Amino acid sequence: MIERSGRRDVFLGTRECHGDVSPCIFGEGAAAYDNIDEFALGYMFHGFTYADEAVREAECGHMSVRFHNVVMRKGIIEFPEPDEIPDKDRRILHKMAIKPFGEELDNFTGLKEFTDEEVGL
Fold first, then answer.
1. Which residues contact 107 (CB under 8 A, 6 or more apart)?
2. Cβ-based neighbours of 51, under 8 Å, separated by 6 or more
3. Cβ(49)–Cβ(65) under 8 Å?
4. What gap in Å lies between CA 116 and CA 121, rounded to an integer?
5. Is 36:64 a contact under the CB 8 Å cutoff?
6. pTM reported for the whole predicted model
7. 53 and 65 Cβ atoms separated by less than 8 Å
8. What's the rounded Cα separation, in Å, for the pair 68 and 87?
9. Do residues 88 and 42 touch, judged by C-beta distance below 8 A?
């Protein structure tokens, strides 16, 4: 999909943080941050947990937000999985009902929009 340009904004913590994405082979050639052992980028937004994605009992039926301390090591940023974010870095925002999704409800396309493009439909 990168070859044809993405459909979604590259989101790096804020909309004002532009991301320039182009195809490459990882590890091929030198990169700007390869020789920097550790570069702290600070405490950043990790993501939202919606009511239907909650894995912690306290977050069930709520929308919550996750944050984490981002560190780049040798040019690589590793992002923890949502369930790996500790409780101290999570906040419940408000109650939220679970919204049903499905093609039959005409509010979900899944990967169809990409599959059709790949096979030329």
1. 101
2. 60, 61, 62, 63, 96, 97, 98
3. yes
4. 5
5. no
6. 0.67
7. no
8. 11
9. no
Q: How many CB atoms lie within 10 A of CB 61?
A: 14
Task: Give 3-state DSSP helix, strand, coil % of the chain, rounded to 5.
Answer: 20, 25, 55
- Report the amino acid identity of residue 117: E
- Are 87 and 49 spatial neighbours (Cβ–Cβ below 8 Å)? no
Q: State the sign of the Cα–Cα–Cα–Cα dihedral 40, 44, 50, 54.
A: positive
Helix (H) / strand (E) element for 80: namely: none
DSSP, residue by residue, 4-16? G--SS---SSSTT
1 HSE (CA, 13 A, CB side): 9
Q: What is the mean pLDDT of each run of 10 residues along the chain (121 residues)?
A: 58 62 82 93 93 91 95 93 95 92 80 61 48
